[in-house]
Design goal:
mainly beta, 9 strands, 4-stranded antiparallel beta sheet, 106 residues, Jelly Rolls
Length: 106
């Protein structure tokens, strides 16, 4: 088992593809935390989803993140199956939101 943390500036819905927070896992992994911070001067929305290779399943959709605050996307933990990845995108700004994910790989 290993703990992995990654952070990224979240792309907007206007970009060609969402930001990948966790690449497709081999085996299983557990998301133990996922927070989004708004570092801009305007409120923006966050959408986070799990992609299983062909379908998207939303963890949160178009949730507002006020200026200078953070949003904890998860109340508990989420298990990722083999091939699952975690992606996100912001509502309008390509630089307003920063996301950090913590994962336990099995």
């Amino acid at each position: 088992m290993a703990f992995v943390r990654s952070s990224a500036v979240v792309a907007s819905t206007n970009s060609s593809s969402p930001t990948t927070l966790q690449a497709a896992v081999s085996g299983e992994a557990v998301i133990i935390g996922l927070v989004v911070a708004n570092v801009s001067s305007a409120t923006d929305n966050i959408t986070v989803l799990i992609n299983n290779g062909s379908d998207n399943f939303h963890l949160i959709k178009s949730a507002p993140v006020p200026v200078g605050s953070t949003l904890s996307v998860l109340d508990g933990k989420v298990v990722l199956g083999s091939g699952d990845s975690v992606k996100c995108y912001a509502g309008t700004s390509a630089t307003a939101l920063e996301a950090t994910i913590s994962v336990l790989t099995l």
